[in-house]
Amino acid sequence: MLTMENVNLSIKRIPILRDINLEIETGTTVGLIGRNGAGKTTVMRAIMGVLPVDSGSIRFDHQDLHRTPAHHRAELGVGYLPEDRRLVPHFTVEDNIMVSLWATGNADRARLKWVYELMPEIGRFAERRAMTLSGGQQKLVALARALVAGSNLLLLDEPFEGVAPALAQRLMEVIADLRSEHLSVLISESDYSHSEKVVDKVYAIERGQMSQMPAKAAA
Question: Which domains does the chain have, with CATH numbers?
Answer without folding.
Answer: 2-213 (3.40.50.300)
